Amino acid sequence: MLLLxxxxxxxxxxxxxxxxxxxxxxxxxxxxxxxxxxxxxxxTFDDNFAVTTNGDVTSVNYSSALWTxxxxxxxxxxxxxxxxxxxxxxxxxxxxxxxxxxxxQVQSGNWxxxxxxxxxxxxxxxxxxxxxxxxxxxxxxxxxxxxxxxxGGRGHQYRHATSGTHIALAATLLYSAHPANTEAVVSVVGxxxxxxxxxxxxxxCCVERAVRRLLSPPLVVSTRGRGCSKVSAAVLxxxxxxxxxxxxxxxxxxxFMMLPVMxxxxxxxxxxxxxxxxxxxxxRPSRTHRPSMIPVVLVVAFLAATSVGxxxxxxxxxxxxxxxxxxxxRRTENPMAFAPSFVTRMLSKAHVHAVYVGKLLWPAQxxxxxxMDCIPLIDEVSDWRNIRAATLYASxxxxxxxxxxxxxxLRVVIGCPSRSSSFASETTSHEDTNSTxxxxxxxxxxxxxxxxxxxxxRLPVAFCVVxxxxxxLPASNIIADIGTCVAERLLxxxxxxxxxxxxxxxxxxxxxxxxxxDGGGGGGGGAATDNVAADDASASxxxxxxxxxxxxxxxxxxxQSWGSDMVFWAIVGVILGAYALRTRxxxxxxxxxxxxxxxxxxxxxxxxxxxxxxxTVQRRYExxxxxxxx
Length: 630
Hints:
By secondary structure, the protein is mainly α. It has helices spanning 2-6, 13-35, 46-52, 55-58, 87-100, 103-108, 116-141, 154-177, 182-186, 191-215, 226-249, 258-273, 275-282, 293-318, 342-361, 386-403, 406-414, 419-429, 436-441, 448-472, 494-511, 530-535, 537-543, 558-589, 593-603, 608-620, 624-629.
């Protein structure tokens, strides 16, 4: 049923509602299969410090002190404060306590013995976030839609929207079950990551709609004021999106990076819809609508002003700016920050970046802690582990170099003419030609359908790179050293970009490789086949604009089209099954602290914290000799 909705041409309100409902049902089913095998009932590890021993949460009466305390209940002005300012997360803990527990339990403090309500709320938040990921993924895929609202591009827009829905749904389901998300979803302390992600994604959905309103053609102020109402609606959406993002920052500081990511989306959308880009990529004449740069500049300026305002507020409230309290964390927690050699620090941090990506690519080895000696420092350039970091950085550089439309950037920044603009002007000057052969001879460049196909995947990939780098930057130990070496919950938001890239690679690179339509040429943007060019009404009308002979319309066979989709979903199903199985196993590790640190010992037998806690577990079982050996 859902596959039928994915292939539905209509874009009515009912169709959209059914599509969202179908996606929600699938997400709930995947989350239930992945996480409900063993719902934890206890507070484990950091949960005790954030909830059960935090006076801002356990106090019977509300106190305004939580607005001046850090996440762990200490005053932000203390030198030993963690400087993690997350008051909205603390309020959510208090709300959970008030809704789920009786006054007798709250008065006696017995509510700390049962953490089930906290975990169930985390699961519900994860479902909500996954549905928001579906909407965001469709918006990201929309960057490949070159000319919005053009009559001649309807066929291409339909195919692009259909492929975008397939990719968005696949990315959503993969994200719902990805094992790297387990720590953020199952641990109670991960509530900050979940709330921050939910509000930040809601803010992104509002801002991207505002950007599309401001840059969609044409923005005409009519006598009825429709243009003014359009601008007003866009401004309102932008304001709501920024307010939601600020609320997300008050749940988790890393959500701050959503502001520059939004600015990156606005810039890329402008590049995708600018007149010269549209002309060269979609084969439209140069008279196609060229959006003004002023709205983009204003949006970016507003986001930048909000960022500066928050940094000033954080410095005022914490007295430490971006610092998280370097007097708090120790060498055992982040040995890279205390390495005496600059080379050692840089090589080790680069290796940690590769470790994070490795957790997303192959989430087999997962641990609650990666403190001192779990990941040994790198002291020499000759260490073979540097190959992983070098591969990661090289791949990122290649992705940026090949996906960003540099010709369009040069055209916008310095006014350098690009091949796309010359192609468009040449098309306009010869649009009255009566000969098909003569028209084809005058345009030696690849058919516009072929060029458009490449941008179906290039701009979304560019934005995913921006997304991943942006949200990984706070945990990279580049801007400032933080109190952890590796933490899996910090991958919760960057994982959105990773799952989208996996889904897109499967759709364009495997299932629809060499097949006509949106995935022509395997997503690589090579020469399109004659059937593809003939199938696109806009490209055909461009090459045969003045000919009295209508070009033949050829479509892929129904079995071939459905076959490609089924191959795609078969591959996604296999990966999804593996993810769900690994997540189920990982959830059992979080049943209690004993199983949690037993699993951590299997992954990080050299970690100082893991050895300490695992030794405590052995002592509980009176295995004193083995505990002393550790």
